[in-house]
Every structure is written in structure tokens, then in C-alpha cells.
Write a structure and sequence with these properties.
The protein is α+β, with helices and mostly antiparallel strands. It has 9 helices and 8 strands. Bound molecules: zinc ion (2 copies). One zinc ion (ZN) binds next to loops.
């Protein structure tokens, strides 16, 4: 099956990416000053807006070239494009710094910033995976600064991104949303659309795949894949892998006329 082949390729790709080690303090940010941190300020804006991550450009480009190497190895058809992109990247320290600063601003179009005609999909693949590696470390550091049980918004409390998956939790039956961009999970209301907040809830079930549902919204035509942890058995749920392994649910939703809202710019931009 072609889908299985693509999924296996992706799993190998992610395994390789997992081997990349970031320097311990690759990501820093201005810590909140204790006396000025007002509890009322908590949970208002995604953390990335309050505590912007800082990354040394030398570290960033070092990791970017490692990611480029892995993409070339696992996606051989992209070799020429990756080479083209790598040679178009800034080399002057000041330009590199400016590029890296922009890489962590949600919703910014870095391809337009480079002002060169580069293959957009491959550029996105390279940049997103590089940023993601740094975001992982950022999330580890900032997550204690947000109450993910109390956030209850349709966008990610850390990076502001849209969810790409939902989880119905085993213990409470509560619903959690998952950000594919920075891998943060936060609580959301049990029913209703996380994209437009419509209260109408409808879902598509898939024969023979009891643990999944695709919730769709007639209001904004968004959809969200959902896994029911109560039906997931002993192994539990790894949302990162669930997303890769359920590509057919995306195709199903899209063929029914719904859209992947994860790709929309975050709200407020
Ligand atoms: Zn996020
Ligand atoms: Zn909606």
C-alpha cells in the first residue's frame, strides 16, 4: 500500500531527526521577574509572544544543515532542491541573525524574506523541522509558565499554532488538543469547534477503526482528528505517531470538503 510506504518513510525520517542533539542551552529567553509576574497575566497570550525564544545563529544553521542532510538521505528526490536552498541561505553574521530571529515568529513567511525563487514545499520542510527541534527545548523550559489545564483556547498556549489532533482522555473523558508544531497538549471544552468556537459538533466515524473519529465543523469547514484513549488499549496514545499513522483520515476529511486548519495563520496575525 502506498500510504504504508509513505508512513514508513516518515517514521524513518523522524527517527533520524530524533538523533540530532541540540546544545543544552541552545534556546534561551528572558525569564519572568518573580515580583512582576501577576497571576492575572497568566494564560492570556501564547508564551512565545511573552517570552520570545532566542537562538544563536551559529547553532541554528549548524542544526539546519544536519536536518538538510537527513532530508536528502530520506527523500532522495529533494537533493537538488535542498542544495539550492542551502546555497541561498544568508552567510553574513548580521543577516543570519536576522533570519534566525524571524524563524521563531509565528506566521512569518521567511521565503518571501529571502527574496529568491526557491521550492516552497522543500523550504518549508527544512525550516519547519529545524525550528521544531529548537521548539522542543523551548517547550521544556517554558511549559511550567502556563496552566495547560486552564488554557481552554483553540490555539496552542506555547506557540499559538492550531491543533492537529485531539485526544479524549481515559481518566476524565476530557478533551485535549495537540499542537503538531511544538508538541504541546492542552485542555479544551469537550464539544465544539476549536477553530471557530461553534458549539455544533458532528463527527465522521471510520469502519473498523473504533478509536478514531474526525470531528468536522459546518461553520468553518475545519476538521480535527480525534483519538479516544479509552479505546486505545494498553499501549496508550502517542499523538505524534498517531498523526503520521492517520494520514488517511486527513485524506478522508479533505475529500469530504473540509480543510486542514492547522495550516491557517494563527489567530491575531
Ligand atoms: Zn504549539
Ligand atoms: Zn469551526
Amino acid at each position: 500500500m502506498e500510504n504504508n510506504f509513505i508512513q514508513q518513510m516518515l517514521v524513518n525520517f523522524y527517527k533520524e531527526l530524533d538523533q540530532i542533539l541540540l546544545p543544552e542551552n541552545a534556546v534561551t529567553f528572558n525569564s519572568p521577574i518573580p515580583e512582576s509576574s501577576n497571576p492575572a497575566d497568566k494564560n492570556i497570550s501564547p508564551l512565545i509572544n511573552i517570552y520570545p525564544p532566542r537562538v544563536k545563529s551559529t547553532d541554528f544553521f549548524d542544526i539546519l544543515h544536519q536536518v538538510a542532510g537527513i532530508i536528502k538521505k530520506t527523500h532522495p528526490n529533494t537533493v537538488a532542491e535542498i542544495d539550492q536552498i542551502e546555497s541561498a541561505l544568508p552567510v553574513e553574521p548580521a543577516e543570519q541573525e536576522s533570519f534566525v530571529g524571524k524563524a521563531f515568529i509565528p506566521g512569518i513567511n521567511l521565503l518571501a524574506y529571502l527574496q529568491q525563487d526557491l521550492p516552497a514545499d522543500t523550504f518549508g520542510l527544512l525550516l519547519n523541522h529545524t525550528v521544531k527541534l529548537f521548539m522542543r527545548q523551548y517547550v521544556e523550559k517554558v511549559l511550567p509558565l502556563v496552566d495547560t489545564e486552564d488554557w481552554l483556547k483553540g490555539n496552542c498556549p506555547v506557540c499559538g499554532g492550531r491543533p492537529n489532533f485531539a485526544l479524549l482522555e481515559k481518566e476524565s473523558g476530557g478533551r485535549y488538543l495537540y499542537c503538531g508544531l511544538c508538541e504541546t497538549k492542552w485542555r479544551f471544552q469537550r464539544l465544539g469547534c476549536p477553530f471557530c468556537y461553534s458549539n455544533e459538533s458532528q463527527f465522521i466515524t471510520i469502519e473498523g477503526m473504533d478509536k478514531y473519529r474526525v470531528y468536522v465543523c459546518e461553520e468553518c469547514r475545519g476538521y480535527i482528528k480525534t483519538v479516544d484513549e479509552r479505546k486505545a488499549g494498553e499501549d496508550g496514545v502517542n499523538l505524534f505517531l498517531e498523526d503520521i499513522n492517520t494520514m488517511h483520515l486527513d485524506l478522508l476529511a479533505i475529500s469530504e470538503g473540509y480543510f486542514n486548519k492547522q495550516l491557517d495563520p494563527p489567530p491575531g496575525l
